[in-house]
Amino acid sequence: MDNNNVADEDAPKGLVLNARILWTFSAAYNANEDKSYLEIAARAYQYIEANFKDFDYGGYYWSVGKKGEAMEHKKQIYGIAFCLYGFAEYYKATGQPEVLNAAKECYILIEKYSSDTLNGGYLEALTREWQPIGDLRLSEKDANEKKTTNT
Length: 151
Prior knowledge:
48% of the residues lie in helices and 7% in strands. It is mainly alpha-helical. It has a single domain, classed as Glycosyltransferase.
């Protein structure tokens, strides 16, 4: 949306926004069982799994294009953590084993690749293949630090 409330159909889609939509509508459904909330949560879950999931290396892409093609391949732990939150709440709403498995996969990948067992904390980002990366920032305005209080 621009400042005039006009949708930009070509704008990239972000992982965090979609994971927040999943969490929000799952939590709303869990609070009052309004099926319309569950329908939106289901749509968000399906969109994340179909478009953001990296089927080759695991995890989720930071952003995708209009047609669901990966635009930013790096593994931003902040985004994957939001998927974990969303999947956990959606699992609470649905009880679907594949949703629980998606949540567990996020946790396992974060612990395996991002956890700094020597010094504590978590690395901000890694390459698509889970290797160290030079640009760890969420956006150009952020400091390029290996760890922040964001993750």
